[in-house]
Amino acid sequence: MRKFKVVSEFEPSGDQGQAIEKLSEGFLRGDKYQTLKGVTGSGKTFTMAKIIEKVQRPTLIISHNKTLSAQLYREFKSFFPNNAVEYFVSYYDYYQPEAYVPARDLYIEKDASINKEIDIMKMRATYSLMERRDVIVIATVSCIYGLGMPELYKSMRIHLECGKTLDTHKLALELTQIQYQRNDVAMDRGNFRIRGDIIEIYPPYMEFDEAYRIELEWDEIARIKRFNVISGAITEELDETVIYPAKNFVIPQEELFAATERIQNELKDRLDELNAQKKFFEAERLKTRVTYDIEMMKEMGYCTGIENYSAPIAARKPGEPPATLLHYFPDDFLCMIDEAHVSVPQIGAMYEGDRSRKQNLVDFGFRLPSALDNRPLKFDEFSKMLNQVIYVTATPRKEEIKQSTQVVEQLIRPTGLLDPVVEVRPSEGQMEDIYREIQERIERKERCLLLTLTKKMAEDLTDYLTGLSLKVKYIHSEIDTFERVEILKSLRAGEIDILIGINLLREGIDLPEVSFIAILDADKIGFLRSTTSLVQIIGRAARNENGKVVMYADHMSDAMKEAIEETKHRREVQEAYNKAHGITPHTIKKAVQDILEREAKDAQENAATELEVLKKSANLFNKEQRNKLLKALRKEMEECADRLEYEQAAAIRDQIKEIEAQFGK
Description:
The chain is an alpha/beta fold. 44% of the residues lie in helices and 18% in strands. The strands form six sheets. Strands 3-8-2-17-18-1-19 form a seven-stranded parallel β-sheet. It has a six-stranded mixed β-sheet with strand order 10-11-12-13-14-15, covered by helices on one side. A hairpin with a 2-residue loop joins β13 (210-217) and β14. α1 packs parallel to α2, α3 (66-79) packs across α18 and α15 (481-493) crosses α20 (646-663).
């Protein structure tokens, strides 16, 4: 087996080494749950990579959105160039789920645009998990949704070996049964062709546009070659190979007929129920829809919405969980959940949202009750599937801490910078106090952030400070996407000195120029003033050696107390480390333009990773496909801006402009 090997010019520094050792030892002794509590800028991703190298186990890394997943995918690809690093996210550019709104008697058909390139990457992930152990899969919550059964996926593979007898007609039938299509003219992923004694098969999961060529002498396999589909160059000669199905959802013909019998029986029982309830219209609608689907499955082996019949097809009992990506991993795998304070609640929320939508479809005769079992995993089902877990977050929730046998801190930044000083001051006279603090920062050519609770307050405060001849702007969700990007850039470039916002707490916003943060109404109860939010806000001032955070409040809330104690603890550890190693923290003194260029480059690389698969799946010379791609890019750009990922949004905006300039709008 090929071993995991990190390729990097850097070695662990600060407290990365102890974090790697402790978490690796915990994993190897069998700890079910552990937490890596790492501050922003401490190199958590590098620590994760070194842990994987240490424990040598197949690894699933779950992130809560596509943008972060793309960033992690790019970073782990660079850390592990000789291992399989795969990307498993939703393959929909656009997705409107099937739904029924009883109040308006409105049925909404499922409407989706599948991105073929991402679908290929998902196929590659399951293929790699079947063939090797040195696999890292970067996934979103898509990993808890139904997928084809790994047992069938593996059992239906086709083994080819030199010297063995081969019947081409039988092979063609077997390839068709595992969802390959015959095309003797053009080679495309998921196709095969037969030309005399030469058979060419192009599996969809191959990474480098490679296919297999099987050469026969009479009825015997003489040679098996892997070749480049575009250039035709032979890349390798093989003694044997295995062809996996072209889709994850495959089923043998004999089992499909048995499945249609189960669907027919369920339909009969459900019709009896609906008729007994005098729901004759719903019963007739259900009978028409399901009977048509059964006929399609018998004739074509497939029907639209076949995933809604996944439970009877797999012979699962009502309530049994579906097969997911997690079922493809071996029993001893490692799961790392990045930004766990967001990702874990997101995983837990998926089931209920899906269930409520589908219940209406069942109640009103659009779907059989078994459609309810085409669903994401419940949280307890997800937890049971996990072998061992490492939560990775700067602000773990109480649930993660309680579960973990150890919480390992990683608090040292390579720059030596400390978490900021935190003070609490009364609300009375806060504006005069804030004005004095702002003037000090302006003299030192530093920047300020002011955090309010409402949009109205942000706008009023901006007007007030503008009246005092200060350079200030506000930012919130109603500001146009492009304008939000420009406002943040103008703060860094010094065109404005103060930025007023509501939710400027995303981990990873790099604002080294900001040395003062004022949190208004810090004692109010709610999400924006929770312990996690306050710790994240405080972290925004941790990039500057003069960082200070002032909470304006009338009393000390529990969240404030916990956030202050956490920041004080971090600062004490950081100061002790700096003293022991003779480090004097300094703000990065690069020119603002250098910082902007570096962050823009990082954002462009992240965007490129994600957008490459979008662009590959569209013919940009075709106006319809081009408009479809541009629509998907604009949606992604707006989502990035909503998450305050402004550099990423700007990079996508530039991609849109480039496509429009080159190919037209």
